[in-house]
Amino acid sequence: MAQHTVTSYDQELESLGRKIAEMGGIAEKMLSDAMDALSGLDVDLAQSVVISDGRLDLLQRDVEAASIMTIARRQPMAVDLREIVAAIRVSGDLERVGDLAKNIAKRAILIAGEQRVPRAVIGLRHMNELAANQLKDVLDAYAERDVERAQAVWTRDAELDALENSIFRDLLTHMMEDPRNISFCTHLLFCSKNIERVGDHTTNIAETVFYLVTGGTMPLDRPKARPGASLAAPVEAQDEP
Amino acid sequence: MAQHTVTSYDQELESLGRKIAEMGGIAEKMLSDAMDALSGLDVDLAQSVVISDGRLDLLQRDVEAASIMTIARRQPMAVDLREIVAAIRVSGDLERVGDLAKNIAKRAILIAGEQRVPRAVIGLRHMNELAANQLKDVLDAYAERDVERAQAVWTRDAELDALENSIFRDLLTHMMEDPRNISFCTHLLFCSKNIERVGDHTTNIAETVFYLVTGGTMPLDRPKARPGASLAAPVEAQDEP
């Protein structure tokens, strides 16, 4: 293979890497902005989250198309091929993280009429911070091809499920105490489910890092509650295997 | 290109098509079984749905790997390349439809303790039948490369959103009438959201059929309610663009 070919191939991989890094930055910001919009009942901020999702969708299609053209042009094998498959998978997960952040932002718009912010939002904020840190960690693990770090993130996903369980019970209690809480607590239930699904995509990315570096699949059971083990978490467990 | 090469290339495409057809059959059965399990509080049937999801995940990884190897080996261009990209996308959507059916099945296991089946399940059944028909239609459109049929399916997705709205209001009323309804009605809320997301994947597949046949993107606005247009539906609108 001529040197300039190798070089331009490396440039294609670098360009994929840059696009995924941009996607990660957008997804992280959407997630924290969506939660700020929800707890601040800030409609403008929520709408800005909805708008930024378009950029994420464009980048994902862009990564997918560029990856496929690179595979067709270069016919990469082994780790080179895994690099590109991983890029397609990670960009897909980040695109869906953006969708979930957008959904939280839309809920924020819907409940903005509420004059008070329910206590349960504090738990949601905490859950969202954990999910955002997990996402940042796994994207660093992806950038550094760090399998141990990816596995650590993957294992910590169980904390998100535990948090969702307690928020679920908290919101249910809230609803039972006063029927006027039912409508907006329902929105918060969906928000916590969205955050838990961000965690599922984070574990997907961790599994992709493992595949990228080793060529295999992560030799652990998913860090999820078992079906029926609790009311809230297990149902979306392995939502995105 | 030698004849035998063309032939074996065609065989690779046929094999992808067969795998996707099998995935479609499994996803459709999981969806109807999950709803039967929910309305019949049938734990065994629900568990069989959870188990069949594993086969769907395997098939999806299989289609993805085979597609990528075909791209690397054949360097297909234009419609041939779109064939394979479409296979990757459709298998991804079907895999997630399976996840959603599995989630409904897990909810069925969780609420199996309830001795009575809430009235709202009738609405859910209706919604699920509509979603299953839409899925069957779009898979036929994919098999026949029928753009008009795909667009018709895509447009009808708005009916699912409308149904989810009415089920959402119905369940909320149920919860407000009697706090003892809150816990299992919450599970049904998540079930209706899962069914609505099946509709999102169906519209994704419709868009993929359009891309496959024309090389372009569907020239219509998504058949979704606008943000804030209702309490329930718009929030997950464009959940999976």
Automatic annotation (TrEMBL), chains A, B:
It is found in: Cytoplasm. Residues 20-107, 124-209 form the PhoU domain. The keyword Membrane does not apply. GO terms for cellular component: cytoplasm. Its main location: cytoplasm. It comes from the Bacteria. Keywords: Cytoplasm, Phosphate transport, Transport. GO terms for biological process: intracellular phosphate ion homeostasis; negative regulation of phosphate metabolic process; phosphate ion transport. PANTHER family: PHOSPHATE-SPECIFIC TRANSPORT SYSTEM ACCESSORY PROTEIN PHOU (PTHR42930:SF3). Plays a role in the regulation of phosphate uptake. Homodimer. Belongs to the PhoU family. This is Phosphate-specific transport system accessory protein PhoU. It comes from Lichenibacterium minor.
